[in-house]
Design goal:
The protein is α/β, with parallel strands linked by helices. The protein has 5 helices and 6 strands. A hairpin with an 8-residue loop joins β4 and β5. α3 packs across α4. The longest helix has 24 residues.
């Protein structure tokens, strides 16, 4: 009798675990996104208050790559940064419309790395990456798509040095997970391959 109860509890536990893993990510997208003709997306430099510049660069590079695999052409970050420098030197603000005019893009993607750190304690070191993405129209400036996703990679170990090593090894996979899961909510671009 106890065996059946334990199997039922195990089954329910596994069910809720996998149901939680497969849950949809809350996001906001304009209803007529597919009719907007969004093809060229400029990925702006990452706003970063928690992690260093290397984390911001890594996040930006991952976003550009994943957008490319979703059917959106690549726009070199160096070109975007040069145009931002021109706008800044002229004393202007880099609005989505000004970036649209200078780069001839359809949309501008803003990324904020809200958290990108490991909290190392005695035997436990979770690596947390929290990112917010917002795409704005380069014509109207309105928000076309917005999502926030947070990933936590848990690490266990017996020494602080071992935990620090493990957290450094999972940082890039954590960023990749955040980018992949967040961009699942964005429809494929016009150059996407497959059905």
């Amino acid at each position: 009798m106890a065996s059946k109860g334990m199997r039922l509890l195990l089954f329910l536990g596994l069910f809720f675990f996998f149901a939680g893993c497969a849950a949809k990510i809350p996001h906001v997208i304009v209803p007529d996104y597919s009719k907007r003709g969004t093809r060229l997306i400029a990925v702006m430099p990452v706003q970063n208050s928690q992690a260093g510049p290397e984390a911001a660069r890594l996040l930006r590079d991952k976003l550009i790559e994943e957008l490319y695999f979703k059917g959106y052409p690549k726009i070199p970050p160096k070109l975007i940064d040069e145009k931002l420098a021109e706008i800044s030197a002229a004393g202007g603000a880099a609005s989505p419309q000004s970036m649209g005019e200078m780069l001839r893009v359809d949309a501008v993607l803003y990324a904020t790395l809200k958290e990108g750190r490991a909290a190392v304690t005695l035997l436990y070191a979770p690596m947390t990456v929290d990112v917010e993405l917002e795409m704005k129209s380069a014509v109207t400036g309105e928000s076309l798509w917005r999502v926030q996703y947070r990933a936590v990679h848990r690490n266990f170990g017996f020494s602080r040095k071992h935990l620090e090593l493990k957290t450094s090894q999972v940082f890039e996979p954590a960023i990749q997970e955040v980018v992949n899961r967040a961009l699942e909510t964005l429809p494929d671009g016009p150059d996407a391959m497959g059905p």
